[in-house]
C-alpha cells in the first residue's frame, strides 16, 4: 500500500502519547471518562470558573513536561528527515497539545488544537512561551493585561492552521491517522477528504476508531510498535 508516497499527511491524536504516560480522552481511563469536557474545555467553562480550568491545564502541562517522547514520536521524526532527503515531505498535523513530537526531533509540527507550552493573551492576541503554571492575575509579557489563557482550542472554537492543513491535504499522496478516535471534527473528516481525492488511507490505532470504516487499511497495536513498523 505504501508504494512510493512522497507527500505523506500524518494526523496524530492522544493515543501516540499514551505510552509516554499522558492520558487519552475517550478510551478506558481517558480524561473525558472521568471529567466533563463541558466544564473544562469550553470558553464558557473558562468564563464560569477560570481557576478550575487553569488548574486542569497546569496539571496537564506539568505531566507533559515530565513525559518523554516514545518510539512512535521518534519514528515520525526520522521519517520526516528521510522523506525530505528524497525530495518528499511528511506533513505532521497533531491534535495533541503536548510537545513530544518536537522533543523527538520532528522538524515541523502543526498543532491544530493549540499547545500547552504557550499562553494566549485575550486582550492583545499575542502568544508567548509558557512552561510554568498559569495563575491569576498573570500579566501578558507583551501588553501587561492580566488576560492570559491556555493557548488551546476548546469545543466551539476554531481549530488553528486550517489553511495550511487544507493545502497539505490537497497535495498529499498518502493519509495516515495515528492514535485518534475520530470523534472530533474537523480532524475526523480529513480521512473522508483524502478518500475523495483517491489517495490511500491507513489508520494505526490500538483498536478500531469511531471512523475506522472510512480507511482503506488499518494496523492495530500500540503506536510504539505500529508506527516504526509502518514507516520502516
Ligand atoms: C492508542 C494507544 C496506543 C490509545 N497506541 N493508539 C461535525 C459533526 C459533529 C460535531 C461537530 C462537527 N464539526 C464540529 C463539531 C463540534 C466539535 C466536535 O467535533 N464535537 C464532537 C465531540 C462531536 N468540534 C469543535 O468544536 C471544534 N471546532 C470547530 O469545529 O470549529 C468550527 C469549524 C471548524 C472548521 C471549519 C469550520 C468551522 C474544536 C474541537 C476542539 C477539541 N478540543 C480538545 C481539547 C484540546 C485541549 C486539550 O487537550 O485539553 O482536543 S477535546 C480533545 O479531543 C482534544 C483532542 O485533540 C481531541 C481528539 O481526541 P483524540 O486525540 O482523538 O483522543 P481520544 O482519547 O478521543 O482517542 C485516543 C485514541 O488513541 C483511541 O482511538 C485509542 O484507541 C487510541 N490509543 N492508546 C495507539 N498506545
The topology string of helices and strands comes to EHHHHHEHEEEEHEHEEH
Record the strand order, biggest sheet: 3-2-1-7-8-9
Distance between the termini: 13 Å
- Strand proportion: 15-25%
Structural class determined from secondary elements: alpha/beta
Q: Which stretches of 5+ consecutive residues score pLDDT under 50? A: none
**What is the radius of gyration computed over CA atoms, rounded to a whole number of angstroms?**
18 Å
- In the CATH scheme, what's the topology name of the largest domain? Rossmann fold
Overall number of strands: 9
* CATH H-level superfamily of the largest domain: TPP-binding domain
InterPro entries: DHS-like_NAD/FAD-binding_dom (IPR029035), NAD-dep_sirtuin_deacylases (IPR050134), Sirtuin (IPR003000), Sirtuin_cat_small_dom_sf (IPR026591), Sirtuin_class_III (IPR027546), Ssirtuin_cat_dom (IPR026590)
Active site: 113
Binding site for Zn(2+): 121, 124, 140, 143
EC number: 2.3.1.286
Amino acid at each position: 500500500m505504501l508504494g512510493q508516497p512522497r507527500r505523506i499527511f500524518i494526523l496524530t491524536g492522544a493515543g501516540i502519547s499514551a505510552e509516554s504516560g499522558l492520558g487519552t480522552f475517550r478510551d478506558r481511563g481517558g480524561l473525558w471518562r472521568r471529567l466533563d469536557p463541558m466544564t473544562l474545555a469550553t470558553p464558557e467553562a473558562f468564563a464560569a470558573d477560570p481557576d478550575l480550568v487553569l488548574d486542569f491545564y497546569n496539571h496537564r502541562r506539568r505531566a507533559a513536561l515530565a513525559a518523554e517522547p516514545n518510539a512512535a514520536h521518534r519514528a515520525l521524526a526520522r521519517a520526516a528527515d528521510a522523506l525530505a532527503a528524497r525530495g518528499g515531505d511528511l506533513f505532521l498535523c497533531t491534535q495533541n497539545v503536548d510537545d513530544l513530537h518536537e522533543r523527538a526531533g520532528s522538524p515541523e509540527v502543526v498543532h491544530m488544537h493549540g499547545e500547552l507550552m504557550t499562553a494566549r493573551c485575550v486582550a492583545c492576541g499575542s502568544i508567548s512561551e509558557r512552561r510554568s503554571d498559569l495563575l491569576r492575575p498573570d500579566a501578558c509579557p507583551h501588553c501587561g493585561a492580566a488576560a492570559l489563557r491556555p493557548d488551546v482550542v476548546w469545543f466551539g472554537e476554531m481549530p488553528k492552521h486550517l489553511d495550511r492543513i487544507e493545502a497539505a491535504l490537497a497535495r498529499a499522496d498518502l493519509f495516515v491517522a495515528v492514535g485518534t478516535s475520530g470523534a472530533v471534527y474537523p480532524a475526523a473528516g480529513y480521512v473522508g477528504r483524502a478518500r475523495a481525492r483517491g489517495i490511500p488511507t491507513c489508520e494505526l490505532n490500538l483498536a478500531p476508531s469511531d471512523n475506522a470504516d472510512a480507511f482503506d487499511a488499518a494496523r492495530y497495536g500500540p503506536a510504539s510498535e505500529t508506527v516504526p513498523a509502518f514507516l520502516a
